[in-house]
Input
Amino acid sequence: MFKYRDGETAKKILSAIKDTGIESRFMHVCGTHQDTIVRFGLEEMLADAGVEICQGPGCPVCVTTSKEIADAITLARSGITVTAFGDMMRVPTTVGSLFDAKADGADVRIVYSIEDAVRMASEQTRPLVFVSVGFETTAPSTCVPLKKGGLPKNFSVYSCHRICPPILEAIFEMGETKMNGMIMPGHVSVITGLGPFRPFSEKYKMPQVVAGFEPLDVLMAAFMLTKQIEEGRSEVENEYTRLVKENGNPIARRLMEDTFVPADREWRGFPIIPKSALALKPEFAEHDAVVVHEEVLSQTPEVEAEAAGCKCGEVLRGLIKSEECPMFGTACKPTSPKGPCMVSEEGNCSIAYRFSGKRA
Output
């Protein structure tokens, strides 16, 4: 748990929240925040102070759709080398997973960066695709080799990148998730700064706090949100001042603007969200897997959005907790996942299974 001094500070923060007498429900959109909340038992502490926190669509692997996974599987089964981060390999679909394709003889490889994939492409003549996943935090790293140029001709990127503001807009507009404050993702905010979140405070009167990832960061964010509610304010406040600046990282944002164009795309559990994904600009067409391998991708079979009984979409919308899914801990475990929320280290179900003590 906490070190002694941190523990004393935590008690003071929780006492200050409780003293307001306000009961509130907040949402966050970051798997690392969820890890901190569950790992350190903050759920119970905050509940005692009158605060409930639910997780939204904050896991990049989790929000990647079954159709996108099926595209990657189709590429691999067609004889193309497919590279991706480890969490992507085990995500199940109704046509299997990337690991299933590998077991059947396809050339599927885990990489730790796009540079790994570029190096592998330079060492072979067969086409190689890097499946890029992540929010604004990781998208700039995908841009670097594309902007630098000199890539192997056999290398291309299949972009599954998403950006946060459009999905937040969708959550507010859908109105199905009841909340009166948002804990905003610190990692994303390092890149974006505070500006993209301000329209939500103005339009939806939504208090927001950008928070870091230590237990005290999360508790302070809850306190700051509670104070906004108590004082009738709806602002974007920055708890994570040690890393997040007002304007974020202009260099990283410029890289993204020079490399990607916003695209309409579905998210797991959500309909098509306008301009919520990042597609490569036309000038990078020779390294865009959607263009280079258009014919192969046209052969991707139809897949179900979720496995029968899987409630991952509802978890990502903050409608239910992982433990409320009937398959949690029984039919769906890390060793036999039915959805990406049980696969990814940032997935709510995986976190709940590992740290909540609820086992089948």
